[in-house]
Structure formats: structure tokens, C-alpha cells
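task queued by scheduler; priority normal; single chain, no ligands, no partner chains; default sampling; output format set to C-alpha cells
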Amino acid sequence: MKNRKQKTRMRTIKIVLILILIFFTSNLFYAQYDEYEVKAAMIGKFTLFVDWPEQFLEKSKEFNICIYGDKKLTKMFHRIYKAKKIKNLPVKITNISSSDQNIEKCQILYIKKHNKKKIDKTLKRLKSKPVLIISDYKSLVSKGAHIGFYLFENKIRFQINYKSLKDSKISVSYLLLRAGEVINQ
């Protein structure tokens, strides 16, 4: 019993240290990296603190990160995630140009550019699906996206819609919730 508590405590300490390194040193990245490279790295780190329903990942041969509406950003994600694994699956980066594409196969949908009508339709379509929706628009978080990036005092921050995550059957570690600004608890 004592050994189990020690392992749990050590795991928690490791996770907290990772979070500190990731989120509180983001201003150091600005000196060397583009804003979207930092966001791409953060998205990869989010997956350490997010769990999808097992049956959703079991069906997949790849971990699909879909980029909505930006081919240049898709190429950058390809470069960053080349030969990497998330949740023990090889990463596949896909550019999504239309909400009519099969976005239900994505584990993550990253929205950089958007057409309001199409995005509203996409958010409704994915409301109860286990697709982690991350946006560059904080305003989309209140409409159903799960995580929204924003700049505050020259640092990248993020807002989390807890209710939308629960509706999508995606579970999130309390450590990620503590690192972001949580709405709809």
C-alpha cells in the first residue's frame, strides 16, 4: 500500500513538473519559435492529459490530427509530428477543407481559420463525438469547442470548456484543467 502511494505521488510530481515546463516557460519559446509551432507543441502535450474513450482509439490505426482550413499550417504540423506517436499510435496530419469531410475520424480537430456558418455546423455535428476540438478563437470555446488559445501579456494561454468535454466523453486530467482557464464547470 505504501509503495503504491509513493508511485502515485511520484507520478503526480512528474506530471506537475511537465506542466510547469510546458505552460509557464512558453515565453522562452517565443524568442526562438513561431506562435503556431508553440501551439502545435502544446497540442501534442495536451494529449498527455487527455483520454479518449477506449473504443474510439481501438478503431484507429493512426492518431489523426486534422487541421481545418490551412494548408500551410498542415505542412508545419507534418514537419513537427513526423515519425512521432501519440497514445502509442503513429500520428497522421490531415488538412480538412470542408466540414462535410469525415471529421469524425479525427482525434483532434484544430481550427485556425473559419467560416462562421460552417464552424457552427461542425461544432453541432461533433457535439457528442470524442473529437478534441481546439481553436485559435477563444470565442469558439463558449460555442462548444473544447480548448481555445489566446494571447495574454504576450504569452499563449488557453481556455477549456469542461461541459463540452464531458458531453464528448473525453476525460481531462485535473492538472490540465488547473493550467488553463475553465468555463462551464
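post-processing summary
- Residues 2-183 form a domain with the Rossmann fold fold (CATH 3.40.50).
- The mean pLDDT is 85.
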